[in-house]
Design brief:
The protein is an alpha/beta fold. The protein has a five-stranded mixed beta sheet. It has a two-stranded antiparallel ribbon with strand order 6-7. A hairpin with a 5-residue loop joins strand 3 and strand 4. The protein starts with 8 loop residues before the first helix and ends in a 41-residue tail after the last helix.
Length: about 325
């Protein structure tokens, strides 16, 4: 049996592979193929069990494998099918084999081929780091400068899980200045150190203090009130730290029930409520809920190309 027998023309010719080189269509011993956990998604065992039931080596199609410069084979795309084949008792699998790609190139190919599939944000971010993407590494650097870390797997008690929001804040000015401002304020408000399971200590910036809603709300409060000198930075840090995240969350839930809107917007309303507590009417601030986080300039003001009509549109980000 030749390597091409049983493979579709697309698999043999490299069509739909998302790579430039044709490589070679081969039948490969599964035990020879390695999986690189640095950029591969986490294995879904329920999905593997589903694939293994009634497994058909031809219908499963070819997986994508790379033979690195040292001659070792690595699975680029198809680890679930490979695991299912093993579970079904197969020892060999159809594979489209690339030759001479680096680990970084493997990660880039895998991300491109799975961009519309159900990879989690953490899985995609791990792949971007392995690819050597500059922005991803810069985000890690900024977060670590503020005494915490980006969780590459979701964790409940330490680090930051909200990678998409970190990137949104980074992109406001394109170089992470706004991201650093938000993290600095939260760090100063919740600076008490916590420890993870290994005993390593971090600042009190947890998935709760650095949730997506909290970081967006802090960003908006800074832009609308601190940068416009309605609120002093030091006093806001003190109020935020004294309130605690549980109290802020409860207030946000109440605001959402009464006013609707995105959860982060109600976190912002809760921050305004906390600031106004026990202040005279003349010193209270009002909600500012018109605009978009992504349209903030480097100093928290509107960018030059902001359209006047946007002032009549509710927050969109």
């Amino acid at each position: 049996m030749t390597p091409e027998e049983g493979l579709s023309a697309a698999a043999v010719k490299g069509i739909d592979l998302g790579v430039d080189e044709l490589g070679s269509a081969e039948i490969v011993t599964i035990e020879q193929i390695n999986v690189d956990d640095d950029y591969q998604r986490d294995l879904r065992h329920a999905f593997v069990n589903q694939l293994a039931q009634g497994y058909d080596i031809v219908k499963a199609g070819a997986i994508l494998v790379n033979e690195r410069g040292d001659g070792v084979l690595w699975c680029v795309d198809g680890q679930h099918r490979m695991a299912a084949a093993l579970q079904a008792g197969e020892t060999e699998i159809f594979a489209h084999v690339l030759h001479g790609k680096t680990k970084e190139q493997e990660a880039e190919i895998r991300l491109a081929r799975n961009n519309r599939k159900s990879d989690t944000m953490q899985e995609k971010f791990r792949t971007r780091l392995v690819m050597g993407e500059e922005k991803a590494h810069r985000m890690v650097e900024i977060v670590e400068q503020h005494g915490t870390k980006i969780n590459l797997m979701p964790v409940n008690y330490v680090g930051i899980n909200a990678i998409a929001t970190l990137e949104l804040l980074y992109d406001i000015d394109g170089n992470g200045v706004w991201l650093g401002r938000v993290l600095r304020l939260i760090q100063e408000a919740y600076g008490e150190e916590v420890s993870d399971a290994t005993g390593e200590t971090y600042s009190g910036m947890t998935p709760q203090t650095c949730s997506s809603s909290m970081m967006k709300a802090v960003c908006w409060f800074l832009a609308q009130h601190v940068d416009h000198r309605e609120v002093t930075y030091a006093d806001f840090v003190e109020r935020l730290g004294a309130a605690g995240v549980d109290d802020i969350r409860r207030k946000a839930v109440s605001h959402k029930a009464a006013n609707g809107g995105a959860m982060w917007l109600n976190y912002y309303r809760a921050l305004v409520e906390i600031w106004n507590f026990r202040r005279s009417d003349s010193k209270k601030i009002k909600w500012k809920t018109i605009g978009s986080i992504t349209r903030l300039g480097a100093a928290g003001v509107r960018k030059d190309d902001w359209e006047a009509v946007r002032d009549r549109v509710a927050i969109t980000s």
